[in-house]
């Protein structure tokens, strides 16, 4: 009878994600791992589960070819984590409606995408980009938020975070 592998811990998942994205930079030239950490922290402060935090660390791994879909399938992770990672992974040629529908149809995935969008749309991050890029991304993020039902005033999770932290 085959032995069952122990599940990866959050610390191990973070280390794997950091290693996989170690040489990657964001559009502003910052280490990409800063984005992963911000999304994972955003999920945590929004009340996400350990599985959602794990998926947040891995949310761009397959999309960015930092880790393969085969690696994810074989990883010692709960199926829910794998499902959330794949739900937020944009596929080549996929339209936004299909992408957002998959996120909405996958339990737990919306919180990960909400945190990802919040960090991507952070005015401080966008401010360092060229105006045309900043405008294009701002419009794209707003469209995805609308398709996901995340209103401009923030989702209930964001409103709760704002109420608890005194942010407006």
Calculate the terminal CA-CA distance, rounded to whole Å: 56 Å
Unreliably modeled segments: 153-168
How many H/I helical runs? Answer: 10
Tell me, briefly, the overall form: globular
Series of secondary-structure elements, N-terminal to C-terminal: HHHHHHHHHH
**How confident overall, as mean pLDDT?**
89
Assembly type of the chains comes to: single chain
Percent strand: under 5%
Report Rg: 16 Å
Q: Which structural class matches the secondary elements?
A: mainly alpha
> How much helical structure, as a percent, in the residues?
55-70%
Number of strands: 0
Could you describe the largest sheet, including whether it forms a barrel?
none
Describe this structure in a few short sentences:
This protein is mostly helical.
């Amino acid at each position: 009878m085959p032995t069952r592998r122990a599940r990866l811990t959050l610390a191990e998942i973070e280390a794997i994600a950091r290693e996989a994205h170690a040489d990657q930079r964001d559009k502003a030239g910052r280490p990409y791992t800063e984005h992963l950490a911000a999304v994972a922290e955003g999920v945590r402060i929004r009340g996400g589960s350990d599985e959602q935090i794990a998926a947040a660390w891995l949310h761009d791994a397959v999309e960015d070819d930092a880790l393969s879909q085969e690696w994810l399938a074989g990883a010692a992770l709960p199926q829910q984590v794998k499902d959330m990672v794949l739900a937020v992974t944009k596929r080549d040629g996929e339209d936004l409606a299909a992408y957002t529908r998959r996120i909405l149809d996958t339990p737990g995935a919306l919180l990960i995408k909400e945190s990802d969008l919040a960090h991507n749309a952070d005015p401080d991050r966008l401010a360092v980009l060229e105006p045309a890029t900043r405008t294009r991304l701002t419009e794209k993020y707003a469209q995805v938020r609308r398709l996901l039902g995340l209103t401009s005033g923030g989702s209930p999770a964001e409103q709760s975070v704002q109420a608890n932290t005194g942010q407006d």
